[in-house]
Amino acid sequence: MKKISLAVLLLITTISSYSQTAPSQIYPKIAGYVGILHPILTFSSTGTDTNFGDHYVAGMPVGINIWKSQRIGFSAEFVPSVRAENGTSKMANFTFHPGILVALGKGWTFAGRAAFETSGRYGVTPVLNKTVIKGKNSSLFAAVPLPVRFGNDKPTSFTIGFQFGIAF
């Protein structure tokens, strides 16, 4: 009788362990990321400026995302930018980018960011982001930031950029 009771107990335990669903994600969830940003084209009333021509600008966005739920989150991004021109390079700008995250599904995320730059300019930066490769502990992403900037006695500008990086 003891053997039968033990066998039934083992069978019930085994069946119940297979029928359990995976635990749901616990929120808030914190993630970090780092990337490389390339502004491609900038449009303003003074003309069109292309990167990779007589100068090259690259940024290194570093950020923290705090997901409140599976769909909505907050992000704080910090972007130092370096400009290389005429054989020299220097840090050209630093941008603080707080914003909201909206998961669109299938690896797509929209980030709506405010922008505050040490150059004295400010504005907004909508970003469309896609997770390209999702790993167990990290993922690779590509993004298209579309910054609009105002202020500091310069004309309003609109830039199209390309960003890629790793999230963890």
From TrEMBL:
Instruction: Keywords in alphabetical order, please.
Output: Signal
Tagged with keyword Signal: yes
Q: Which residues form the signal peptide?
A: 1-21
Signal keyword on record:
yes
In Swiss-Prot or TrEMBL terms, this protein is called Outer membrane protein with beta-barrel domain
Species of origin? Mucilaginibacter myungsuensis
Q: What is the lineage of its organism?
A: Bacteria, Pseudomonadati, Bacteroidota, Sphingobacteriia, Sphingobacteriales
